[in-house]
Amino acid sequence: MTIVVFGSVVQDLISYTPRFPRPGESVCGTSFLAGPGGKGANQAVAAAKLGANVEIIARVGSDIFGEANIKSLNEANVGTKSVQKVEQCSTATATITVSEEGENSIVVVLGANEKMSAEVAKSCREQIGKATLLMCQNEVPQCGNRTALQMAREQNVTTFYNPAPGNSSLEKSILALVDIVCTNENEAEFLTDIKAETVESAFKAAEKMLEMGPHTAIVTLGPKGVILARKNEKTVHIPVLKVTAVDTTGAGDCFCGSLAYFLTKMKDLPVEEAVKRASIIAAHCVTRKGTQASYRSREELEQLDK
Ligand code: ADP
């Protein structure tokens, strides 16, 4: 019952500033935060915090960030035997500047994530074959994802794909290798050319994704709820818990990781119920600042229920 994530590790470096500097200018920021991130790592941590058995296949640089990110994955109980340090390469970084208005500007350097090649996926064939679920996202090269998904397919492992961050260069044919696709409204639009901003249009986008390969397609719409479409089933809209959002960073990753936990650990749970529970857990995470730090463990969630 293992989830294997083939994905990214990114060091987030966040500076808070009264305003953005102009080119050539320095401004004095108010505070600084560094934290572990990357969609692969975030999803792995979200699932592991709930109690799933999770392993991540990833690459980091031979620098202090690589070491720190491996340590934090281990602290969250994510298996890192397939996280390798790449010599002469930096760990991926996201240098984020957040202004007082809450706007952000981000420079991402993919660094070691770019080494997540088809060869890396092939070298982990046996590990993928032992998984119950393989999870992929978009912060690593598409050829790596495609090969990892193929390895899973060949060995009857369920495949879960979160095509985030969305981009127009995505080869849509990759969906033929996917069982469960989970997108937000933007990613759904990249895949289907349907603007999925409303519940009605997200229904159409989710159903269009089903025609591209997956048996299950999910579109998350932030506070507007989640659309769940399944082959030969009626598409449904699942409303989300009402909360006061303070930081929505990483909410989509929390949703994906939590859903993976329910799908692998509670196999008898109806998929609609699994989606509902994942959306509640993701709603809780937006009430706290930070990314992985905002994900609650099973024990913390049980306390919230009391
Ligand atoms: P992404 O972070 O990928 O853009 P969403 O914004 O759709 O994805 O958020 C993913 C999930 O996080 C939602 O399905 C929901 O469960 C939760 N969520 C996000 N924003 C809110 C919010 N403002 N209120 C309640 N839940 C939220």
Structural class: alpha/beta
Order of neighbouring strands in the sheet with most strands: 5-4-1-8-9-10-11-12-13
**Any ligands, ions or cofactors bound here, and which?**
adenosine-5'-diphosphate
- If you average the pLDDT, what whole number results? 95
What is the number of helical segments per DSSP (H or I, 4+ residues)? 10
Helix content: 25-40%
- List the secondary-structure elements in sequence, H or E: EEEHEHEEEHHEHEEHHEEEHHH
In quaternary terms, these chains amount to: single chain
Could you explain how this protein is built, in words?
The protein is of the alpha/beta class and 306 residues long. Helix content is 35%, strand content 26%. It has ten helices and 13 strands. The chain has helices at residues 39-50, 64-75, 118-123, 125-129, 142-154, 185-192, 199-210, 251-265, 271-285, 298-305, and strands at 2-6, 10-17, 31-37, 53-61, 78-86, 92-99, 104-109, 133-137, 158-162, 180-184, 216-220, 226-230, 236-238. The chain has a nine-stranded mixed β-sheet with strand order 5-4-1-8-9-10-11-12-13, sandwiched between helices. It has a four-stranded mixed β-sheet with strand order 3-2-6-7. The longest helix is centred in the C-terminal third of the chain and has 15 residues, at 251-265. It is globular. The protein binds adenosine-5'-diphosphate. Adenosine-5'-diphosphate binds next to helix 8 and helix 9.
